[in-house]
Each structure stands twice: as structure tokens, then as C-alpha cells.
Amino acid sequence: MANKFKIPAQRQEYPGSDAQLKPQAEFITKDYIGSKKLLGKVALITGGDSGIGRAAALYFVKEGAEVAITYLKDCEMERVDAEWVKTWVENEGGICRIYPVDLRHSSECQTLVKTVVTDFKKINILVNNAGKQWINEDLSTLSDEQWLDTFDANVHSMFYLSKAVLPHFSEGDTIINVSSVNGYLCPGNLVDYSTTKGAQIMFTRALSNQLLEKGIRVNAVAPGPVWTPLQPATLGQTDPKLVENYGEGAPMGRCAQPYELGPTFVYLASSDSSYITGQTIHPNGGMMVGG
After folding, report:
1. Among candidate residues 225, 282, 277, the one with its CA nearest the CA of residue 254
2. pLDDT band at residue 290, thresholds of 50, 70 and 90?
3. What's residue 288's pLDDT?
4. InterPro entries attached here (predicted)?
5. Among residues of the chain, what percentage have pLDDT more than 70?
6. What is the rounded CA–CA span in Å between residue 178 and residue 219?
């Protein structure tokens, strides 16, 4: 199942932009017909401006949800991407609001949740999707600052937001955490990133046990390679050739398009998955099975 398109070597400035991807990523299939699985629900999606978060937002809207998406504060590239999502949603007759925020700070996460609740009157679905990665081949050169920043972005933000959202949740509401196949395969050039992705899985499992009696479900998605701006903005920073034909080493011979993950988020957010909590779904193209 080879790539139907070739991905050339490329580099973007961090954090990257969907608008600058070559070729463009695909976020939702034209023939997808929603069935109101999320009608009346409000979803808060971090990093909803691009990549996997954008796909989740578009599919949620197709299922009747209203969406609040975040993008990195003071980042023009991400603001442009977020505006694209807002326009798309409004053209579909849906409701989307966008919020610039630095999720590494507890106070900003608290303010974000308060603002979203004021704007939408509630939150029913939290998708902790935003994160970062950087290549490092030698632990002795991995700076303390990078280690801590990766945890701030990938783990601490997940804790801050979940903590802030839970007082507004009730039975039937859901948290979906975006981890990675690298939390299981743990490549040696992504030690800090892989460690945070493993921590996200444990956070998902433990929090699901804590919230079970309240009827609040917590699950995770651990994608394999997906064509998003994170790749040229991080891998490409090290060497643009690392992005060339990205994902071809996966058993399917290609990376995923964001739209291939959208229905996974719909499933975990809706009552279709009412008997599933503390679990991780693995849309990884066969890179790891039985996890």
C-alpha cells in the first residue's frame, strides 16, 4: 500500500503550518456523512488548528458538535491555520471559536477553560492533542531545558487542562488524549518525546480508573506516522531529507492522512464507545500490534 503521493524533503519553521505542507494534507473525506452522534456536544480540542486536531474538529462538526480549538499564542502561522478551520466550520453551518494560548502554563489553561465555558456554556469533550518533539541522538547533549519543555508541552498541559475541565464535566462526558506509537516503540532519537508519550498512556489509564464511578470516560489514541506540520517543523529542522517520503517504513508503506484518524475520535467521543475507558486505540498502520 504505497504512498499515493510523494513527500519531498522539506523544512518549516516551528511549529509549522498545514498551509505550507507539500503536498497538502487531507482532513476529511468528501463522502463522509455524519449521523448526529455528537449533536448538542461542545468539544475543546488543543492544537485544533492543524494536523490530527484539525481532522478531529472537522469530523466532530460533521457529527453535530460545536468546537473550541486552541492554537499557539503569538504564532501567526497557527493563527492562519485556525482561521481556516473556523471558516470551514462556519461554511458547514457549524460553530467554532478559536483561542490563542500557551498550554505549558497552568494559569493559561484555567483561563482557557473558563472562557470556553462562558462562550459555550459547557464542555463535554476534551481532546488533549497539542504537543511537540525534537530530534536528539545523544542523551548527554539533551539539555535540561528541552527535557522540561517537552514535559511542559506534552504532559503538564494535559494535566492542567483535564484538572480545569473536570468540574464542568458530568456523566457521559469524555477525555481523549493523543499519545503516539513512539510511546511504545521508543526510538532512540526521541528519548524525551517517547517518555512523555508513555506518561500520557499511564495518565490515561490512572485517570480513567479515578473517574469511572462518575461515568466519565478517558481514552487515548496512539497514532503512527501522520502527515502533519510537526514533521517538517521538527524532523525537517534537523535534516529536511528526514521528511522525504515520510512514513514509508511503516508496514503499509506510507504515512496516514489526518482524515484517517478522524472517525477514531468520533468513536471515542460518542456513546458508540460507552463501554470503553482506559484504553488506547492504535491507528499506526501496523507498526505495532497487540499493545
Report:
1. 225
2. low
3. 79
4. NAD(P)-bd_dom_sf, SDR_fam
5. 97
6. 9
pLDDT for residue 1: 47
Cell of 189: 532519537
Secondary structure class of 195 (helix, strand, coil): helix
- Over range 108-123, report the average pLDDT: 98
| CA dist., res. 84 & res. 42, Å (int) | 19
What is the tally of helices (H) and strands (E) in the chain? 10, 7
Rounded to whole angstroms, how far apart are CA atoms 245 and 6?
A: 6
Question: What residues contact 84, with CB distance under 8 A and at least 6 apart?
Answer: 18, 19, 49
> Taking the alpha carbons of 244, 250, 254, 255 in that order, is the dihedral positive or negative?
negative
**How far is 38 from 4, CA to CA, in rounded Å?**
32
Catalytic residue (one of 99, 160, 193, 246): 193
pLDDT at 4 over 70: no
Which cell goes with 97?
471559536
Termini Cα distance of the chain: 23
Distance CA 25, CA 141 (A): 33
Q: Residue 118: which residues within 8 A CB-CB, separation 6 or more?
A: none
- What pTM value is reported for the model? 0.96
Q: Cα-Cα-Cα-Cα dihedral of 58, 59, 62, 67, to 10°?
A: -60
The DSSP bridge partners found for residue 98 are 69
Is residue 259 part of the annotated active site? The answer reads no
Strands, E assignment, 205-266: 217-221
Strand pairing report for 125-128 and 174-178: parallel
Parse the chain into domains and list their residue ranges.
36-130+153-224+259-281
7 grid coordinates: 513527500
pLDDT of residue 142: 98
Q: What is the mean pLDDT of residues 244-258?
A: 95
